[in-house]
Specification:
0% strand, 80 residues, mainly alpha
Length: 80
């Protein structure tokens, strides 16, 4: 996940939280609707950026470093 993917994900969560604080939805269906609206805000922002830059925001890169294999970790344990 790239920095931009993380940013748009956080935007969707923040938008959903703000809508929830304003409207106080009750029940699963109303909360689901609010969640979709928050996600749409982030999705629209992402689409607008992609149109402006001509590049996709979503990619296959992983934001976290790859895990080391167990054997390598055990070897390094003794070299401390």
């Amino acid at each position: 996940m790239s920095d931009l993917e993380l940013l748009f994900s956080q935007l969707g969560e923040a938008a959903t939280t703000e809508i929830t604080k304003t409207e106080h939805p009750k029940g699963f269906e109303k909360n689901k609707h609010v969640s979709r609206r928050g996600g749409k805000i982030a999705g629209d922002a992402r689409s607008n950026l992609e149109k402006e830059t001509g590049r996709k925001v979503i990619n296959s890169q992983n934001y976290l470093p790859k895990k080391q294999n167990k054997k390598l970790l055990e070897e390094n344990k003794f070299n401390v």
